Amino acid sequence: MERFFWSFVSLMLLLNYAVVFVSAGCIWYDECGDGWNGAKLNCNYTGPAKQLTNVTGLDLLQTYCPDLYNGSDSFTCCSTNQLMTIAGNMDLPKQFFSRCPACYHNFLNIFCDMTCHPDQDQFVWVNGTRKNPVKSAVTAITYVIAEEFAWGMFNSCKDVQMPSANDKAISIFCGTKAEDCTPQKWLSYNGDISNGKAPFPIEFKIQNTNWTSPNKTVLVPQSHKMIGCNDTNSNNSLPCSCQDCQASCAPVPPPPPPAKPFLILSIDGYAFIMGCVYLTFVVFFGTYVLCYNIVSRDVFGLNENNESMYGRAATRIGINGSGRKTHSTSFIHQISPSDLNCMEKIGAKFELFLTQIFRRWGTFCAKHPIVVLVIGIVIASALAGGIAMSNVTTDPVKLWSASGSQARTEKDYYDQHFGPFYRTEQVLISRPANQQAKVTHQMPPPSIDTMDFSSLFDKDFMKEVLQLQANITSLVAVWNGRNVTLSDICFKPLAPDYEDCTIESPLQYYQNDPQNLDKVAYDSSGFFVVADYLDHFLHCVQAPASISDTTPLNMSCLSQYGAPAFPWIILGGFDSNNYQNSTAFVLTFVVNNHLKEEDNAIAEAWEKVFIDYMKNYKNDHMIISFSSERSIQDELDRESSSDVLTIVISYFIMFAYISIALGQFNSIYTILIDSKITLGLSGVAIVLFSVAASVGFFSYIGVPMTLIIIEVVPFLVLAVGVDNIFILVQSYQRDQRKPGETLEEQIGRIVGNVGPSMLLSSCSESVAFFFGAMTDMPAVREFSLYAAMAVLFDFLLQITCFIGLMALDAKRQETHRFDCCCCVQQKITDKVEKSDGFLFNIVKNYYSHFLMLEWVRPLVMLIFAGWFCVSLAMVFHIDIGLDQSISMPKDSYVLNYFKNLTAYLSVGAPVYFVMPKGHNYSSMAGQNLICGGVGCPQNSLLGQVYRASLSKNYTYIAQPASSWVDDYFDWLTPGGNPTCCRFNIKTGDFCPSTVKNETCAPCPLHPFVKGRPAQDDFIRYLPWFLEDNPGLTCAKGGHAAYGSAVELIANKTAVGATYYMTYHTILKTSADYINALQEARKIADNISESLNLTKPDEKVFAYSVIYVFYEQYLTIVRNTVLNLGVCLFAILLVTIILLGFDIHSGLIVLLTIVMILMDLMGLMYLWEISLNAVSLVNLVMAVGISVEFCSHMTRAFAISIEPTRVLRAKDSLSHMGSSVLSGITLTKLGGIIVLAFSKSQLFQVFYFRMYLGIVLFGATHGLIFLPVLLSYIGPNVNKAKIYYSSLEEDKGQNDTTRNQNSDRDILVDNEQQDPPSYNSLDNA
Fold first, then answer.
1. Distance (Å, whole) CA 656 – CA 1263
2. CA distance linking residue 1058 with residue 1077, whole number of Å
3. How far apart are alpha carbons 869 and 865 in whole angstroms?
4. Residue 390's pLDDT band (cuts 50, 70, 90)
5. Shortest CA distance to 14 belongs to which of 102, 134, 135?
């Protein structure tokens, strides 16, 4: 692009300066001869300025040098030919600088004064001339400029933007980075022949003092009135916009300071508060314990009677010296109907109702096991048949983003109007540590300086990278019987004009041509190297959109596919903008994406070949990491497959334990009879059947399934199912059949006792999960639905099929038939008495007594309360998000890619600010709401994005947005040789600027008004702008940069949706991604508000491909609180109802589950488990499993009629503790430990760690804390239950046998140590 500009500069700098000082004269006039690069030279002339009379010349002088124009009385030192050369060579500067009128005006003045000023010999000195056949030409000059003049021009131009390149325009004209440019560097670079464009050396002297030439001639520094970029140079011009002129900007408000940590007295605020809460609890609880033990327990022996610890209870019901209970009939009869309140009656009757229903149902199932089994299996199988219709969702977008969410809606809008974001295949290349030798580059003469480059820039190494790139480009895949190459699937921005693929690579600076890497330019002697591939690189990283560099190589910086290659995308690991220090090359192959997944199959086929090739590629000189669009999904699939064995072993251990632990072995001789392997496996089969039925049911109604359901729901249902199985079986094993009672009636009675507890736990969990499905997060919602239905089906199958199976197994055992081989019968002469079991005896006779000791209970309360307070303080510090590397297998090649991406990448994801369809671009008012150039307000869309980029550390916006509107204005502006906008006068079709055809003429534009085209012209020529490829004569063609950014509708007569692209800063952590999303949305909302866009369908929104994955974290805390709160409320409601409207017990269950959850979340903080959708699913599951640890124990306590809370707590722990311990606790521990050996980091972090926490905290709270808590604040005895129990007891004392059809079992022997505490009204 610069070639013509430099030719212009060369012509203007060819000064003819007389050796002898001549006042008020010229140094040249007209043109003669050619310079070394073919540019015209100015003829030496030492006379006075000449009057310009040519009409064309006067028009050109008025246009380009208005300060020298004086009508027909204009005297200049330049001819019409020279002015025409100026006009021809101003095309490029005009395209870049005209968006800031003051800059363009000052820029012209510098060179107009030098070329045409009538007193030019006052400040220009000729250093040499060359004789031509007719006239001599100037070969060297010195130009003396006042500092105010030079700095005024520089300051007005230094911030002018290049919208298409997201860079500053001065970087093209300064030969260095924009931020390193100074007036001296700018002008010196223009006059240095090493730039390849200046026809001879031009020395710029920037000073305020006079300069004396070698012949003692005094030159006065040229000064000129400079126009500030925030000022106007005429009544018709406007000041430069804020984007192009910092002086035009209102002060940028400082970003808000980072949030200060919550501290109290320099201590973490949450820890301080919870510490105070705990100390308060210790004081009040300690006071209570001391008073209770001193006053109530008489620990100091102050009471002369010295009652035992159960003394007061003994006075009420009688406790003998050995501590054995001796029921006092008088105590039971102390309660009369008048003592019963309404709620106690309702609770007792409801308990009686549930017991009767379950007893009758259990008896029926035990009497008709085959019928029940057949019906249950048929129904479950019919439901499970829906699995054939199941649809497994693996798309992360559909998993974690609700269809109606903002990010999902915006993504769908973007995809529909612009197409889905591209598929990317990326390779990161660095060098081994032992190959880090610097590449020293000798700067072009006359400089003697050197510059060090990183080892990446070794030419041989770059050729190896180029060869690798070529190998990847030539990969061939086979899809549906045909060959597929990269060219078949890649994105081609200039198609159909050019069919080159978009490959972002440092080698694009050399157009992927090894011969361009080898190019070298020598000086005139042919000895000194004045430019090579490294000089070309240095220029291209400063001006990646250059058509021709400023070195003698005259090579283009544009990529092979016609677009600029931005250094912050293709290089990594550099500091600041020192790209020569880069430590990584980034190769990115951009592939087209499609809305329909099946249309991407061809790309996926090529990507598979690409992955295989990169896995096998070896090069000792390179360290390579890579990723493909399909890589993450492939690795997730491989991870799932690799962990199948781990999961199978985990479940096998749990199944084996269940099968063995269910058996109660009374004798070595009856081990094969007492075994319960068949029954245990049948129970496991019922669990699997329930999961299958749930999956099938929702498959029938079209609810998709996820991998989380497959991995988590079986674990959950197994926990619930195993607990119920152990309670049922162990209750039967410890039960003694009543006189005259059949086996079926015994099983029915046991089901009547334990059925309400099973109903409580299963119903609580199922309802909680159904309530949890109200969330809008798809993965959590679907998990909750599947889990709720699976728990419900599991309960239904257990109280039907499993009861039938238990009856059949009991009959097998009573007939002395072997387990697993019931056809074999063993002859046993001696009757084997049932025993309570080892674990039951340990819990009942030792553990429960120890736990209820007066010094143990306070200690338990203090420890659990302390840990709860500590956990609650840590909850507020749990990280939010999901490190994507955790989701990959430990041996995944993608992990290296993630690591290097974070280490090397210097720019974040692209972000698009989308203006929806409906905006009026044709009107000046509509244009001003968007644009960022001259005349555009600061609160325009592009103005606000620009201001956001000034605070990039806070807003995460790396740079101003590209603007097709501003580039279109420049493209449409009249002028240039030729102009950008041309048409064929014969056909009316568009003529690209690169086409030289006499039938092409400038577009017939209406006059611009304040730099804006007429409304009709705007839409008429916009399609041509979007078709035009950028080139040497017109750098503003919009095809490459904006071809997909503008949606043309109504047969290309109106503008639909458009976007304006910029980049995020580098995002490394989940917090960075979340904050970037939040800030981008704030910017978009501010834009909509400033533009007065109030309707939802017309508001500007920010879109990036990452947003749909990270939006969930904006509301993850709210969703967590809501989901867990709804589940807890459901459990509270169900518990209160099923415990006979016992609010007290419901609140205790709720408190215990809340403590388990808080302790689990405290563990998450300590074990570095972040809060995300996966951990949220586990927390919801933890609520369900916690019910199993709490509900059985609480119900046992609630229905117990022991006289004191301590005794009732011991009673409930004795009868339920062993079942909970041997059931859910030990079963799960065995399976969970296996998960620690998983190859998947995801399994280790979110399953092993969290599952282990769920089971350990659930078990400790259920078996340690809850009994102690109940012993302190448990609900009082339901007097109605005692009263009804006394009535049944009196009836039982008069009967020798029980009535088999009675509605309730009655306790008849108060001395007998009956087993389970599940005799709802009779036993405690």
1. 24
2. 20
3. 6
4. confident
5. 135
CB 1058 within 8 A of CB 1046: yes
Q: How many residues does the chain have?
A: 1324
Residue type, 246: Q
**pLDDT score for 829:** 55
Report d(CA 10, CA 202) in Å as an integer: 9
> Which of 834, 462, 807, 393 shows the shortest CA–CA distance to 633?
393
Q: Which residues contact 679 (CB under 8 A, 6 or more apart)?
A: 662, 729, 805, 806, 809, 819
Backbone conformation region of residue 624, classed left if phi is above 0, alpha if psi is from -120 to 50, else beta:
beta
Question: Under DSSP, is residue 637 helix (H, G, I), strand (E, B) or coil?
Answer: helix
**pTM, 2 dp:** 0.81
Burial of 387 (0-12, 13-18, 19+ CB in 10 A): middle
Sign of CA dihedral 1135, 1140, 1144, 1148: negative
CA distance 624 to 430: 7
Q: Give the mean pLDDT of 73-84.
A: 91
Kindly give, in sequence order, each residue whose CB lies less than 8 Å from that of residue 66, ignoring residues fewer than 6 positions away: none
Residue 75 · residue 51 · CB < 8 Å: yes
Is 320 within 8 Å of 1256 (Cβ atoms)? Answer: no
Question: Tokens in use for 1083?
Answer: 């910017």
pLDDT at 213 over 80: yes
Pick from 685, 84, 91: which is nearest to 380 by CA?
Answer: 685
- DSSP state string for 728-756: HHHHHHH--PPTT--HHHHHHHHHHHHHH
Reported confidence tier of residue 669, pLDDT bands at 50, 70, 90:
low
Decide: 1302 and 1318 in contact? Cβ < 8 Å: no
Whether 989 contacts 1015, CB under 8 Å: no
CB crowding 66-75: b at 16 or more within 10 Å, else e = eebbeeeebb
CB 1307 within 8 A of CB 1249: no
Q: Which single residue is written with the structure tokens 């915006």?
A: 410
CA 1230 to CA 1238: how far, in whole Å?
14
CA pair distance 708, 621, nearest whole angstrom: 42
| Spatial distance between the Cα atoms of 588 and 904, rounded to a whole number of angstroms | 14
Q: Which of 606, 624, 463, 493 is nearest to 559 (CA)?
A: 493
Tell me if 1216 sits within 8 A of 1198, measured CB to CB.
Answer: no
Q: Which of 38, 40, 51, 45 is nearest to 13 (CA)?
A: 40
999, containing H or E segment: none
Residue 79 DSSP one-character state: -
Q: What is the 3-state secondary structure (H, E, C) of 1083-1118?
A: HHHHHHHHCCCCCHHHCCEEECCCHHHHHHHHCHHH
Spatial separation of the C-alpha atoms in residues 714 and 645, rounded to whole Å: 16
pLDDT per residue over 1156-1208, tens digit each?
999 999 999 999 899 988 888 889 888 988 888 888 888 888 888 788 889 98
Please provide the distance, in angstroms rounded to a whole number, between the alpha carbons at the two ends of the chain.
95
Instruction: Name the residue type at position 1180.
Output: V
786-798 pLDDT, tens digit per residue, is 989 998 999 999 9
Instruction: Report strand pairing: 705-706 vs 392-393.
Output: parallel
Instruction: Determine the residue type at 279.
Output: L
Sequence letter at residue 739:
P
- The rounded distance, in Å, linking the Cα atoms of 981 and 1026 is 11
Give the integer Cα–Cα distance in Å for 596 and 602: 12
